[in-house]
Amino acid sequence: MQIHYIYFYEVEGDNDRLPNAFLPQLKKNLYFGYQMTKIVQQNHQVTIHSRHTLSQIPLIVTGDLAIITVPFSLLKFVEIEPRDSFSHNKWKAIRELHYVASTKIGLQFKRRFWEQEGIRGGKMMTDLPIRFAYYPSHLIGSTGSGIILASYTWEDDTLSWDNLPEGDRIRNALDNMAAVHGKQIYDEFLTGASHSWSQYRYSGGAFSMYKPSQETELFPYIPVPEGRVHFAGEHTSTVPAWIEGAIQSGIRVAHEVTNLPKTL
């Protein structure tokens, strides 16, 4: 059985540590920075077409099987050939599975002023636009700067944040936090950053979440292989939206491909 590993990802700071941990064993078969454009099943093989996100150089890899972890929010933009190599129910799931919009905003301050207010970790809920904030539970009592997850919103609560540029998100989140802690925190503010998963080109949403009746109608067909194409990722598991679901799906699909008939 011919096996190729294609890992589509974009380096963002420390996010490269996990994939780099696999390099010693897999580096000869890893292709970084490629975006999948087409899946072709024919002649007892499956071929993945992709292009480099910067240079646009194409890459075509053919093997016996493919394990696809791309979220369905983006898989709908990948050409499937022949189209009927995916079942009607799989196409229905790809088209209809709901993905949640979500935005997080982090703020860094010169000192951990919230600890002087008696806050040592925990979550704040408010009807302000920031909705939910999270205080760090590590390095409690330490000196120096600290970071608060000043806003975690999703679904309708995140839409107003997604309409704002980065600077306005940070300023409004800081204003909301000042409404809770007092205006003195402006003097403590250092910098901020935000991330919108619905606007992130490689996820198209933060995670999958079933709308009413979707778990009954869609889930039985989401993890099922289509010919030589197998599926993994949190959206294919019984615990979507969590890392446990991604791990569960990886174990499941590993059993699928290793237990296939030897004559495949």
Automatic annotation (TrEMBL):
PANTHER family listed in its UniProt record: AMINE OXIDASE, FLAVIN MONOAMINE OXIDASE
InterPro entries: Amino_oxidase, FAD/NAD-bd_sf, Flavin_monoamine_oxidase
Protein name: Monoamine oxidase
Tree of life domain: Bacteria
Domain Amine oxidase: residue ranges: 15-257
